[in-house]
Design goal:
Blueprint lengths: L1 H17 L5 E2 L6 E9 L9 E6 L5 E5 L5 E7 L2 E8 L5 E8 L4 E3 L2 E3 L7 E3 L15 E4 L1 H6 L17 E4 L4 E4 L7 E2 L2 E2 L5 E4 L2 E2 L23 E7 L13 E6 L7 E9 L8 H5 L8 E14 L3 E13 L2 E3 L11 H9 L28 H17 L1 E3 L2 E13 L5 E15 L13 E15 L5 E5 L1
Parallel strand pairs: 2-8, 2-9, 7-10, 16-19
Antiparallel strand pairs: 1-28, 2-5, 3-4, 3-6, 6-7, 11-18, 12-13, 14-15, 16-17, 18-19, 20-21, 21-22, 22-25, 23-24, 25-26, 26-27, 27-28
């Protein structure tokens, strides 16, 4: 019965993989690598030494043999913690723990000591901070930092500013990487310039703005819980990443041989907030701004040491009315007569017709004329437009995202993963605060993403696809 259930689970995963029929090749990196040199105590290289790497999360093992120069390399490792064992006849076995990061080749060297193979030497050296084998300037924000650092909004790309050569730029809070401005939409400061964003090796860059899909208009494209780690490269970096001045390369979380998960709820009501100093000084009341964030994730084995899953759900609800205040344009019955005289040349006591449209329409009137009904109608429409757009306009935000990932390891040489992300953002009232009626509409964005990858540790076979 158990064997039948296992076969059914594997077939189900392959059916999902096969359903991704619309695929385009990608050129990004969603894995890491391990390399190093094995030598004896005198420094002489140790060829034909056996190197065994084992994932602490999944138990998957990979092996390699050092070449004539004592060098080994194990590519296409899923980022995470690994134990490394090096053995050679006539020498004690050496062991070490390493942390493989996305987009990087970790160097771990070993010096073997003469002795029985059954004896073990623990290597406690940490990986070097400098990476002479790489020309890129990059930083990795790992899961530990994402968990522990406070982050308003749960948008993982906000943590990019913790890395060198990055900063906030412009009034929209976009991130400048390697000097590429990120604030505006025209000229040299075109969003994030020529920066590239990928998740699980799939392009997540807005084709128009060269920013991550959704830009600053949505709270997030991927939930904070769903991201395992991400790499920020300020360049120069490998051509395999594609073009761009800066490169942000993220990977989603995977399941392991044990079940793990979490739930969270965050509520920021207006009642617990203080009014800002400027509004308080001018006698304006504290605006309404209620924010709720909630969700949960779970991951674990479907078949231990063979097939794993991870799923994350996150949602944000915000009620944040638009406050448009301009006392110079606000009209009341008490000041209307003076307002019409100062701005439209109408004498006191002029009676305006009821408005017949949201805005004035183009016409040939060039001078104030209190006897012209067309001119009076235009003035009435102007007063109506001003009063309609001043004060408080409703604005709400509902953003939810579901991310799932399946990892399959049929043998020690090959691995597959499928990640699917769906984000739905709906904002009645919109995000643009320019005081015209047309901008108080509904902003809706739905962004499905799917990544399918096959990694072969031996031979040239390797593909990474979007579906």
């Amino acid at each position: 019965m158990l064997a039948e259930a296992n076969r059914l689970a594997v077939c189900s995963v392959w059916l999902v993989l096969a359903s991704c029929v619309a695929m385009t090749a990608q050129n990004s990196v969603a894995t890491g690598a391990l390399r190093g040199q094995v030598a004896d105590a005198s420094g002489a290289v140790a060829p034909r030494a056996s190197v065994l790497v084992r994932s602490l999360a999944t138990g998957i093992e990979r092996s390699a043999t050092t070449n004539a120069a004592g060098i080994y390399r194990i590519p296409a490792l899923v980022p995470g913690s690994y134990s490394v064992r090096v053995s050679l006849s006539g020498f004690r076995e050496a062991q070490a723990l390493v942390q493989v990061q996305v987009g990087r080749a970790v160097t771990q060297d070993f010096k073997l000591q003469v002795g029985a193979t059954s004896d073990t030497v623990q290597v406690t050296d940490t990986a070097a901070l400098l990476r002479p084998g790489e020309s890129s300037v990059s930083t990795v924000i790992n899961r530990s930092l994402i968990d522990r650092l406070p982050m308003n909004g749960r948008k993982y790309t906000n943590l990019a500013v913790l890395t060198p050569n990055t900063s906030y730029d412009g009034d929209t809070g976009l991130v400048s990487i390697a000097g590429q401005q990120g604030g505006e939409d025209t000229g040299y400061a075109n969003a994030n310039g020529f920066n590239n964003f990928t998740v699980d090796g799939i392009n997540s860059t807005s084709n128009y703005f060269d920013d991550i899909v959704g830009r600053y208009r949505i709270p997030y494209l991927y939930g904070e819980n769903a991201i395992q780690e991400f790499q920020i490269s300020a360049g120069p970096y490998s051509a395999m990443y594609g073009g761009g001045s800066g490169f942000v390369n993220a990977i989603t979380r995977s399941g392991s041989n044990s079940f793990h998960g979490n739930v969270f709820y965050y509520n920021r009501p207006s009642a617990t907030q203080a009014n800002d100093a400027i509004s308080k000084a001018n006698g304006y009341p504290k605006p309404l701004d209620n924010l709720q964030q909630f969700g949960g994730s779970i991951g674990g084995p479907i078949i231990k040491k063979r097939l794993w899953f991870f799923a994350d759900y996150e949602q944000q609800l915000r009620n944040d009315p638009i406050q448009v205040i301009n006392s110079a344009l606000q009209t009341t019955p008490a000041n209307l007569s003076q307002f019409l005289s100062d701005n439209f040349g109408l004498p006191p006591g002029t009676v305006l017709p009821p408005p017949n449209g949201p805005l004035p329409v183009p016409n040939t009137n060039t001078a104030p004329d209190p006897t012209d009904p067309v001119y009076l109608q235009q003035v009435s429409n102007v007063i109506n437009a001003l009063n309609s757009n001043l004060g408080s306009a409703p604005r709400k935000r509902n953003d939810w995202v579901i991310t799932s990932r399946f990892d399959y390891q049929p043998n020690s040489r090959d691995s597959f993963f499928l990640s699917v992300n769906y984000n739905n953002f709906n904002s009645p009232g919109g995000v643009i605060t320019d005081p015209t009626v047309g901008n108080y509409g509904i902003q809706t964005l739905a962004t499905p993403k799917c990544a399918l990858s096959s990694l072969a540790s031996a031979g040239p076979m390797r593909f990474h696809q979007a579906c």
